[in-house]
Amino acid sequence: MIIVLKPHATKEHAEELMQRISALGLRPLYMPGQERVVLGALGDERAIESLHLDSDPLVESVKPILAPYKLVGREMHPHDTIVTLGNTQVGGGRFTVIAGPCAVESREQFADTARAVQAAGAHGLRGGAYKPRTSPYSFQGLGVEGLEILKSVSDELGMPAVTEVVDSGDVEVVDRYAAAFQIGARNMQNFRLLQAIGRSRTPIILKRGMAAKVDDLLMAAEYILAEGNPNVILCERGITTFETATRNTLDLNAIPVIKQRSHLPVLVDPSHGTGLRELVGPMAKAALACGADGLLLEVHCDPPNALSDGRQSLFPDQFAALMRELRPIADAVGKVM
Ligand code: PEP
Ligand code: MN
Q: Which of 38, 97, 263, 328 has a CA between 20 and 30 Å from the CA of residue 48?
């Protein structure tokens, strides 16, 4: 339920009402606005009838939250969320570019790539230490050694680094090394893993599953917020369709749909979205034009010899050229890069 209080209701009134909501076994939420306080009550909405809020002199209106994602939806939270990621932010009129190799392969490879993307103007780094590969025979990532490399390069360059966590048992160790967790497409509905990272306060980039609807993505994000972690960034990375010309079909429709339904920031990953480096630039520009809050993309210092996803990784000079081409588009759509 969304309970809008009258302008003269005080914080004490709100607290008293929240206690009554809690006593019914519902979860109260407090959302002070410019002019009035809005309260939320999460749980079985029928229970709230016993409070007779319609006739409460301090209550202006009571209405049900229609979307199934109560915390992620815009109904309860009309303003855009901005997630702080180390010394940068995602959302709120910025266009944030997080770039790096698919996987951390060695100190030299990660440091060379990281320096190149920083010089080109990237805001954050990416690099997987635990790789969820389709084949068990493909490179699985360097594990803790990869995390150590990721963190030392990130500290050296003063750039936040994002890395994937694939197992709830690894959440604590990844949290020690990374500025943000990435949840990959293959784990979008691994609900125990979502709950485990929901108990931390570290930002999360939640990638859309290849066969997930937008609402499935939003419900997956709800699992994280319901555990108390509000720092969720969504990511569109392409879905499986009948099309075989590209690795996935990058669903840019999802960006304005997500913006309508949710207050969370959203990135686009044109690398996994296309699978082909020559398509990454055009789709990155399209993502900026259609309202994305930034990009998560793959760059490698030596793509032909990459241990994973070389075919979709940009060469450093291609990434630098793309960053230059994005700037006038950012200006045109009123985003700061
Ligand atoms: C990745 O970012 O390298 C990755 C494995 O992405 P996805 O989960 O979107 O396939
Ligand atoms: Mn990859």
A: 263
